[in-house]
């Protein structure tokens, strides 16, 4: 088995987005969404254990053996950074790597609607970027912070698990704090971050009640807060946030969310057919007075209609975005229909 860093460099040179180590199999890489085996020899249980041990210190390795799961980052200078998850399967270690370039790509290179750049001019409030794992949420967030970093003299604090893109201070002063290393949890980090004089706060994920509540409070108190959820539509995102709260508090959180939420950006990545690479499908909800009223009155189910009829405000449904990608020759018909929120309706539109 080659040295771990040699193999990871090979994967990056090939353009892989993900690398998987599973005992009994040769290392696998994901190229443009497709899992692809390599010609390296099969990984042994001893190989996999040594790989994890080489990437983290002794204390974190001991914690990994106790908890059987660990998230951390790994860097190969001048090659790439990696988000890493080590875990056990069938009693042996398995590892998943996500390759993350050190180079933050500007928003103009990400095939995103212009409204997303305009959101970076907001002085305060909550902006959520959502989607499945691997949908490009971290790339969009890094691009948004980069845009503000070039424009403003502000204080940016990020809470991440683990740190992905290295965000270097330009006009802004940027602090990046890693959960499990610099802070014990997202909730704890957010609780204290408000005492650190931030202007812009980025929370890697709103994964529990404590984190969600703290993020909304930060947005309400005049900060610009960016965060993510693993949801696939704007409606689902708002419902997920409200459902985190006990039923007795849900009316209150509807009111708070209607005041603080500025936008929801939902993403899904497609394999391009016109050239190598990926392209995002994007749903965008902008919190206009009409949307705020729907949230406050628990009429979330009406939001898709508002998105559909508010294109002039920069909104668009996921299916509209997918349809446009297909008509522009960027994605396949099968991928378009398979990923649509309303596949039968989109299929009829594509026939027409």
Based on the model shown, name its key terms.
352 residues, alpha/beta
- The total count of strands amounts to 13
Number of helices: 14
What is the helix/strand order?
Answer: HEEEHHEEEHEHEEHEHEHHEEHHHHH
Percent helix range: 25-40%
Rg, rounded, reads: 21 Å
How many angstroms does the end-to-end distance come to? Answer: 54 Å
Unreliable spans are none
> What form results from the Cα inertia axes?
globular
Major sheet description: 7 strands, mixed
Q: What's the assembly state of these chains? A: single chain
Proportion of beta-strand residues: 25-35%
Instruction: Give me the side-by-side strand order of the main sheet.
Output: 9-8-10-11-7-12-13
Determine the structural class based on helices, strands and strand pairing.
alpha/beta
Mean pLDDT: 93
């Amino acid at each position: 088995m080659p040295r771990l860093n040699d193999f990871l460099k090979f994967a990056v040179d090939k353009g892989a987005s993900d690398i998987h180590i599973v005992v009994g199999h040769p290392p696998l890489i994901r190229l443009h969404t497709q899992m692809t085996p390599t010609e390296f020899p099969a990984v042994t249980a001893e190989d996999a254990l040594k790989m994890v041990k080489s990437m983290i210190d002794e204390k974190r390795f001991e914690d990994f053996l106790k908890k059987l799961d660990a998230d951390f980052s790994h860097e190969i200078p001048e090659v790439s950074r990696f988000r890493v998850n080590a875990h056990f399967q069938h009693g042996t270690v398995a590892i998943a790597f996500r390759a993350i370039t050190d180079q933050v790509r500007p928003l103009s290179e990400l095939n995103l609607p212009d409204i997303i750049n305009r959101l970076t001019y907001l002085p305060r409030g909550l902006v959520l970027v959502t989607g499945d794992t691997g949908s490009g949420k971290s790339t969009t967030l890094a691009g948004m912070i980069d845009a503000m970093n070039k424009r403003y003299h502000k204080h940016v604090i990020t809470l991440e698990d683990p740190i992905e893109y290295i965000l270097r201070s330009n006009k802004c002063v940027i602090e990046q704090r890693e959960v499990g290393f610099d802070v014990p949890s997202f909730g704890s980090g957010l609780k204290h971050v408000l005492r650190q004089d931030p202007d812009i706060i980025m929370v890697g994920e709103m994964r529990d009640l404590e984190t969600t509540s703290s993020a909304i409070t930060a947005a309400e108190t005049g900060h610009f807060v960016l965060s993510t959820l693993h949801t696939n539509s704007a409606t689902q995102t708002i419902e997920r946030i409200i459902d985190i709260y006990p039923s007795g508090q849900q009316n209150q959180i509807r009111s708070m969310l209607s005041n603080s939420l500025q936008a929801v950006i939902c993403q899904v990545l497609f394999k391009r057919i016109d050239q190598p690479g990926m392209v995002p499908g994007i749903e965008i909800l902008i919190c206009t007075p009409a949307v705020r009223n729907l949230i406050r009155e628990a009429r979330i189910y009406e939001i898709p209609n508002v998105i559909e009829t508010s294109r002039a405000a920069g909104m668009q449904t996921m299916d509209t975005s997918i349809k446009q990608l297909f008509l522009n020759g960027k994605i396949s018909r099968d991928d378009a229909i398979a990923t649509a929120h309303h596949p039968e309706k989109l299929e009829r539109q594509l026939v027409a």
